Amino acid sequence: MEVPGVLRDISVGGAKLELEQPILRGTKIVLFVHFRGPDKQVTTVRFEGIVERLKEQPRFEIAMGFRGSGRFLQEQLGDLHATKVSHAVPAG
After folding, report:
1. Confidence category of residue 41, pLDDT binned at 50, 70, 90
2. What's the CATH number where 13 sits?
3. Residue 23 in contact with residue 56, Cβ under 8 Å?
4. Which residue from 89, 84, 76 is spatially nearest to 37, judged by alpha carbons?
5. Which helix (H) or strand (E) holds 27?
6. pTM of the model
7. Which of 8, 48, 53, 74 has the most CB atoms at less than 10 Å from its CB?
């Protein structure tokens, strides 16, 4: 199941996302984050983590903790700028 959303914050240890539907606390997920460089190339980084917090608002806000480090899925690694989450996938 893919859940589209918006990346609100990301750090070495985790991320905060706004999603269109909830993902329950304790769920293992895979997060794909797309970074667009100044040359408009997109670099995708894959993170594995666990949902640590769910807050219901008009949209669902989750906080996830990463398990390990991110993995680059594309070769273009120039300067990384604005971010968007294409989807978060519950691992299973």
Report:
1. confident
2. 2.40.10
3. no
4. 76
5. none
6. 0.65
7. 48
